[in-house]
Amino acid sequence: MRRQRFTKIVATLGPATSTPERLRALFEAGADVFRLNFSHGVPEDHRQRVEQLRALEKHYKHPIAILMDLQGPKLRLGVVGKQPMELKKGQKLRFDMDPKPATAKRVPLLHPEIFQAAQPGGLLLIDDGKVRLKIIAHDKTTIDAEVEAGGPISDRKGVNLPNLVIPLSPMTPKDHKDLAYGLSLGVDWVALSFVQRAHDIAELKKLVAGRAAVMAKLEKPAAIEHLDEIIEQSDGIMVARGDLGVEMPPEAVPPLQKRILATCRVAGRPAIVATQMLESMVHSPTPTRAEASDVATAVYDGADAVMLSAESASGDYPIEAVTIMDRIIRAAEGDPLYRRLMDASRHEPEATTADAISAAARQCAHTLSAAAIVTYTNTGSTTLRAARERPDVRILCLTPNINTARRMTLTWGVHPVHAEDAHNFADMVQRAVRVARKEEIAKQGERLVITAGVPFGTPGATNILRIAYC
Question: What's the pTM?
Fold first, then answer.
């Protein structure tokens, strides 16, 4: 299952892709990572999909990553009534903690954290920003606001307060229960919603305790103020543009996407660009040209992966969406500009042996027109360093740890293989050559650039570079 591209594809599973046949079709079309959205579905649904994916992994003898996405806290209106309430521009409205249904003058908002965070002059957004109100006054139990952009509101519509840090834990009781269940199923990545500070990720990592890699979803502008700390604390990052776009001006999101991806690359953290990438394909067999450009832009920006949400979970054309995304990625990566951008955005390696070896491996592979860079790794750190260099050849990741192999499927340019660790220098070269040919990464007579650490099996000890012929 060698992909003809460097950038990976994440496909969200749902009602449209719940059978073994559909999962197999998604994988064959190009999906590398499968997302389980715990905002929807019941535990039994997720269990069945994990079992089906592990059977698929066994059939193809290729690692598959499973990403569980925790729902996180959802700030919502209370009961509005049987019919939507139409808000008019200039209308005054009070939000309070009374659970009774809304009237023409008040609406229930049963989140004390919102009243704590509210500030006069701040905005209160409803239904993904479709309705906007300006806060005039507030106390511990009420908010008085004036409608700036009107529209209908109804029961349980989402509420956002842009540019405010909500004193709210990113994990609800439901998330704690879901996390324990997901870890028992053996998921490979856990994505945390509503991240505002690095401390949020630190709390999750304590609960996960190394059983999965942890990903921060950047959905709140408050998280951007602590971007470096959040990236440092996380194993990966998801740029959730849809949610970011609700709480900040649309024109601010594209440069922010570029900034996040550049920061992740420097830190050696894989990054996913997500939400609304091929949104029209929920009901259309082809994307718009603007959507194709959006996917390509993420590729040119150096994203490790691009993600499908409703397109693959509940859309009418899930397989076609993956297929077209694969075609867009390969077209962008085949553009000479892509390689120039990857080379121009490369940063100087850190003054460490491991970074020096990784930089040298990339240079050797280019100079010698090698077929691939082979990394021996236990934790994945060696492979992540190689990927940060954005070489112009594939990275063959050999690891004795199946969990590492699965997690590495998310990383740019990496073809992971679960294999026994090398025992000595001769075995290192022989094993690399044998696997590279078996996986169709290299042909007889082609060169491989191999990195590893001595003593073999020691995490984080990359200190060897070898060049071998297949």
Answer: 0.93
